[in-house]
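Sample log: Copper oxidase.
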Amino acid sequence: MQRRTFLGGVAVAGLAAPWLQAWSAVDMASAPVGLPLLASDLLPAGATLRELPKLANASSTPGHFQATLTAAPLTLPFIPGHASTEFWAYNDGLPGPLIELFEGDMVEITFINNLKQPSTIHWHGLPIPPDQDGNPHDPVPPGGRHTYRFNLPQGSAGTYWYHPHPHQYTAEQAFRGLAGPLLVRSREDPLAELPERLLVVSDLKLDRYAAIAPNDANDWMNGREGQFALVNAQHQPVLPFDAGGRERWRVWNACSARYLQLALPGSTLTLVGTDGGLLEAPQPVQREYLLAPAQRIELIVDAGSLRDRIELNANIYPRGKMGDVSPDKAMSLLTVDFTAVRATAVAALPGRLGSVADLGPVTAHKQVVFSEKMNMANGSHRMQFLINDQEYDMGRVDLVSKVNEVELWEIVNRSDMDHPFHLHGTQFQVVERELGGVITPAPFRAWQDTVNLRSNEIVRIKTVQRWSGLRMFHCHILEHEATGMMGQLKVV
Ligand code: C2O
Ligand code: CU
């Protein structure tokens, strides 16, 4: 009976076939591994980092944001001397345009789908009602359009993003270019005076003809990683650091599966914000910061005595990849040019940035278990990634919560690989982590919508949902999400 509620639409029923087809054992097992890719030095590097173009507000009413986002193929001469590359993009831009909003805004964004596949726009991390959140159950068909409407509550200032979430096509649409940054600003931002840099990191895999390569079997198993990690769609650009010696960076990990073990040797990095906004107090970063797929951070970067050019690196992070994969290499994301820095001293950061109030006493509990299983049916060797022993089923409710009830979720990773857990529609608080029987309380409270789990790790979070309806939770390695590592929470 439950089923009817979610399988009601004609469009949804029509999606069943491609979903099965796309990750059938045959398809994945026969996907060739190791086809030659374009040599990574063929993509020019070293241009000055560009600013992200903004999505213009068509409304002149204060507190109202109105705009249109069109998803369509975009053909660019990306590699000199090669055929053009076909991306799929929002408003002909890579990444999608920056959507800059304020707390309290009423937002109205019309999505026009000029792709040949159904799509939706999911507002990753935003506290908005489920029927406006681009669920797979509300697809916009090819040639169709849909207006999303939501209000941004006070306290929602933070660093978000948007990307497609249609049943079964999310991974492909994202790796072809459909993803963009979204900022919610507060009118009282203690760090508003600082020069701000927005750095959207995305992944790109091009075949030797400069076309976007399809997923191979290793991509389906470990998550897709191409030969390029781009920043604002540029290859290893140069960031001219502010003469004042201090910048506020917001960094998005918009990659399908790449973990970013961020390091900027010699600089002083201070964490001031996570996915859902500022921390209560600045936290020094020791050497490296791990930004898992889908996560965002706000950092204060101090040049200190640096006056030269330093690379921002994504260092090696062993995440338990399986199969016959080549060893990971550290990657340079961009070069920070500190040569213009003139300041000899910077002021102390504010000791207090705001409040991250405890969500309060817990009155319900849930458990989510990630696992993996080799499926040998029909002679195939397909790795299955499961949540609570099941693959995703659009017509099944996996968990039920009550509106406004504070819950403790225990997320358990009983698999050999790291997985970033993401829950829609809310910002949660990590309470503690457990690994090898050792419990480590979260060192400070922070708003997050995505949390990484190492192999065999347990993470406990406090979370609450404010609207009734259906929410997704899933691994944000998009190939895992696509092949079934997703569940549904019904909020009543
Ligand atoms: Cu960013 Cu369900 O996703
Ligand atoms: Cu995963």
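Observation: The helical segments are 2-7, 10-14, 16-22, 25-30, 170-175, 217-222, 478-482.
Observation: The domain at 64-185 is CATH 2.60.40.420 (Immunoglobulin-like).
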